[in-house]
Predict the structure of Molecular chaperone DjiA.
Amino acid sequence: MSFGKWIGASLGWSFGGPIGAIIGLALGSMVDSFSSGKEEYTSGRTQQGRRPNYRTQQQRRAQTTSGDFEVSLLILASVVIKADGKQDQRELDYVRQQFVSMYGKERANNAFRLFKNISSQKIPLRQVCLQIQQMMDHASRLQLMHFLFGIAKADGMVTADEEKTIYTIAGYLGISSRDYESIKSMFYNSSDNAYKILEIPKSATVEEIKKAYRNMAKKYHPDKVLHLGKEHQKGAEEKFRQVQEAYEQLQKERGF
């Protein structure tokens, strides 16, 4: 599949707003001839009907496509990778590995052609995140956060600058502090991680632990992101597995 056809067929709401502007600028810088890609890009829009305009959808959330999620992740990943003032090759390799795993080599290569041009831009982070918050469902935004921490941890540790950037992104995305700490704890080792993952205090009773587990298992269930396609199930299953492990750890510690 050519680049123009790939991006034309993959995106929904992200054609508009600040994300659309970033994509447009990146496409304009592509080595690939945009004159031929442009026709495919336009036909991709026509084949799926008129694309919703970002400004007209602030009161009605459109369903996020796999492509919308993919582009949002690429843009936010470019911000996180540069948060500590450098682009670590291990983090870049992690992003590529994740994309190959999710989308296959050809689509991953297309994504990275776009990523290189996105990375050279100055990203209006708040505006991008506000568009994502308005247009993307909560479960998908949690999935984005999980990927961002995975990228930051790819070089062995999450630096203070990377954590600060991800925290800022979480705030702009409308992620609660409890959800943020839950996902963050999946990438750190500490004695109270299991409690943080389940979003409960260490003083929680056995019944409160059981209730929290049921709530978190529902929140992080892979079915919540089925609309993103099977390529995103692996990441969702990883979050779900860590919730299960946190609960099993507390079962052993508390003896229930």
Q: What stands out?
A: The chain has two domains: 1-175, 177-256.
